[in-house]
User: What shape does this take?
Amino acid sequence: MDILKLKNELTEILNEIIESESFINQTTQSVHPGYKSSAKNLLRYLILRSKDLRSYHGSLSDLGVSSLRSAEAYVYSNLFNVVRNLNLITNTVFSRSPNVEIIGYTGSQKLIRSHSERLFKKADPKQQTEIMVTLPYEAAEDHVLIKKMLLNGMQIARINLSHGNLELWQKMIINIKKVEEMTGEHIKVYMDLSGPKIRTSTISLRSKKGKLKNKIRIKPCEKIVLSKPRNKTKNVSEAKTTRSKQKVIYVSMEEVINDAQIGETILFDDGMVKSTIIDKNKDELLLKITECYKDKIGSHKGINLPNTKLNLPALTHKDIKDLKFACLHADIVGYSFVRSAKDVEILYDELDKNRAGDLGIVFKIENEEAFKNLPEILLKGMERSSIGIMIARGDLAVEIGFERISEVQNEILWICEAAHIPVIWATQVLENLAKTGIPTRAEISDAALSAQAECVMLNKGEHIINAIQVLKNILTRMEGHLFKKKNELRVLNVAESYILSKRKN
Assistant: This one.
């Protein structure tokens, strides 16, 4: 690209950011003082990424000028220096605006680390990536298991409030405290709220031979009925449907039937069965199976609706009850099913009721709506002092499609880096190793990539101690090689959508 064209086009983008300062200042008015600079940088990044920047990189590199590929954390400073250097090369006058706060590279790295240290209460600031491990049920009875986890590299113990009960969780907390007293080491506690769980109800059908079955057999092109929860006093096999020829599956939450529309997709069992809604009435959806990698649908299997806007509360009655326990015992709470800034506000109101306004909060990005609304979730989240983001790659992959998960997880990493917000890399990290004792080559590569995040989550398994050791070794090696990475920077749809929506307003 001609150097004058290059300079003029990048100057235009710089001027657009400078002219947006009043909008940026207004949008960040409610942000916590500790995040003010970070929130402004996020908005500048969204403006930058609403442009296609790919054509500039080669020309900038040929001129020996720093490119824009690693500008996430210090947008204005990076772009300003690029434009200034182009003016020096072309021998033209250039002066910077005194009204824009500058965060340089060094300052941006300090902000990322300080926000990470505050959320994770890091004992060792030199270790960039924390290791979080989901506690198995055995941890409630065996404190030695928790001790082994700690001594082999676990810094954060995760208690999943979707499973177990108050008695079980209390025993885990008691054993954590016991290990802390024995070792003199602090174990941070992370608790995941359940959120609304959309699942198939219990299936209990009697075969022609009189045997009870808890699965329904399905095949491609077959039509089945998804119905509102049945009367608890009525057996499934006795339940009637207006479509008597079709097999019936009952869903755990009636809002699914109310909100889903004809033409939308419904997925069962982590996307193993895919269907399309071809008809509906007030109580039922008629589905056509389009793809199935399993020939049966069982009881209590997850249901995903990637195209449906569900009117479900992000905080259920169970969550509100569990939150009281979490506020007493957790260092960090994971917020499931967050989809918008309004959901953030609802959680913060509940935290205030529990006098836990300073509790660390992690927003779990596990559906497409949350991903699309990530900028507003972050900006609302930054009204409190200590937040993070979890890339919940399991549900997210089912919602957006497995072929997109790598792209989307990178976009989340970029946006969070721009906001200087720590990220937790979660779902199936070294899962084969934890369960069988033998890692796959692909999961070792995945674990190496996880060093881009500030925390990595391992799930439970018989060989979890070995998995912790391997992950710690991988992270230690990789931290010496990378801190984030360079990218091509095509238009980022999330950024473009956010900026366009704000300009319309």
User: Anything to note?
Assistant: The chain has 19 helices and 18 strands. Residues 134-197+311-428+453-458 form a domain with the TIM Barrel fold (CATH 3.20.20.60). Confidence is low (pLDDT under 50) at residues 232-242.
